[in-house]
Design goal:
- The chain is of the alpha/beta class and 400 residues long.
- It has one domain: 4-Layer Sandwich (Metallo-beta-lactamase, Chain A).
- It is 25% helix and 20% strand.
- The strands form two sheets. Strands 1-14-13-12-11-10-9-8 form an eight-stranded mixed sheet. A seven-stranded mixed sheet has the order 7-6-5-4-3-2-15.
- Strand 3 and strand 4 form a beta hairpin.
- Helix 2 crosses helix 9 and helix 9 runs antiparallel to helix 10.
- Bound molecules: zinc ion (2 copies).
- The site of one zinc ion (ZN) has 7 residues, from loops.
């Protein structure tokens, strides 16, 4: 959940969130619009848990909140969106939201003292550059480097993410004068962003590298922009997710192969979903997207599909607080919901992918009671679970 929040900055961010909180409180436990009431769901919904002990390959949910918000009013805090795939001792991150480092520690992924030890972290995969997916990225470098645990001298952390957008998005509603931020490069990609973060924190980094023997940051972390397939026909403002005939090959080592596809998170471009294939099984991460043919194609037969979800009823309640005409309201609703997958849509997406498990994450909003998400299993016949921070799920067979 990112684009909707960014899109309403000019309206009334405070008003939207206040309305959202009211909506969540007023309708807690009620049926979700368009979905069957929770009471009609026959199968039990599994919430939280840790059944990964003994597995070589694990999925660890570090943060499960969508949107650049410190959600309040929830019975439990959700950190910003971030997940880890762990194979043996090796760790791979998908997105790096607010609070990632603390959750990494709480999940027991720091392998040794000192804390901030990321020596087992091999790679980071950023689905897109919305802040709720990258707010934990600067601390990864700034807290990881001084302890000496960011990568190793012979194996720097590899970071993969979108390249430059290449054009500014359109203005919604049209016609408003909007000066760009950073007009010299208003659409930095992953490589640009990484370099700019290092520039911004150069005083700190030079102090630590020169005075307290922190290692050379450039030898411990290397960023890459994911290249789009030649001839894919993508365009930042008109065709953000053309149908791809085959997945984009992003990364491979002795433990995992990571592929990607373009997903539809307009106006964000590029936005990726990632699939991990291991000897034990496969995990696909939707990233932020509305329903898009590329995603089930990438996720086909996955053991786990980690998918985002948004509650349109919450969006409606938020819009009800805005002084909008019916036409304006319809336009805003489409704009806000059109970048994400609703409670009603996510089950059929997982079904069409043939995923063995649908695991919800990146909740929009992040402060709903769990019952509000039960309707998301409608249209899906596999194993449905509600993701929670620090939840761990084993992949493949448990070793004896
Ligand atoms: Zn998001
Ligand atoms: Zn987003």
């Amino acid at each position: 959940m990112c684009e909707p929040f960014g899109a309403v900055d000019w309206m009334s961010r405070r008003g939207l969130f206040k309305g959202a909180a009211v909506a969540a409180g007023a309708t807690a436990g009620a049926a979700v619009t368009g979905a069957a009431p929770a009471a009609a769901v026959a199968r039990p919904v599994i919430r939280g848990g840790n059944d990964a002990e003994g597995y070589r390959t694990r999925l660890v949910l570090l943060g499960t909140a969508g949107g650049p918000t410190w959600w309040t009013g929830s019975d439990r805090h959700r950190a910003g969106i971030s997940s880890a795939v762990v194979v043996g001792d090796a760790v791979y991150l998908v997105d790096c939201g607010e609070g990632m480092g603390r959750r990494y520690e709480q999940a027991g992924l720091f392998s040794q003292s000192p804390a901030s030890d990321f020596t087992e972290l091999r790679a980071v995969f950023l689905t897109h550059l919305h802040s709720d997916h990258i707010a934990g990225y600067p601390p990864l470098m700034l807290y990881g480097l001084p302890g000496g645990g960011l990568g190793t001298p012979d194996r720097p952390v590899q970071v993969f993410g979108p390249g430059r957008r290449g054009a500014l998005p359109g203005v919604f509603p049209p016609g408003r004068p909007v000066p760009p931020v950073s007009p010299g490069n208003p659409w930095p990609g992953t490589v640009d962003m990484t370099d700019l973060i290092l520039q911004a924190f150069a005083t700190d980094l030079n102090d630590r590298i020169r005075d307290t023997a922190a290692p050379d940051i450039y030898a411990r972390l290397v960023a890459h922009d994911i290249a789009l397939p030649p001839g894919a026909g993508a365009d930042p403002n008109t065709i953000s997710a053309p149908r791809l005939d085959r997945p984009i090959e992003v990364y491979e080592d002795d433990l995992v192969k990571v592929t990607a596809t373009l997903v539809d998170h307009r106006p964000v471009f590029p936005a990726f979903a990632f699939r991990f294939d291991t000897d034990d099984g496969s995990i696909t991460f939707s990233g932020d997207t509305t329903v898009c043919d590329n995603l089930p194609a990438l996720a086909e037969g996955s053991d786990i599909l980690v998918h985002e979800v948004v509650d349109p009823q919450w969006v409606d309640a938020s819009l009800d607080r805005m002084p909008l005409t019916p036409d304006e309201r319809a336009a805003y609703r489409q704009h806000l919901i059109g970048a994400h997958t609703t409670i009603e849509q996510v089950g059929p997406v997982a079904e069409s992918a043939g995923a063995k498990m649908l695991l919800l994450s990146h909740y929009g909003p992040g402060d709903h009671p769990p019952e509000r998400w039960h309707g998301a299993q409608q249209g899906y016949s596999g194993n449905f679970r509600l993701g929670e921070d620090l939840m761990q799920i084993g992949v493949g067979t448990r070793p004896r």
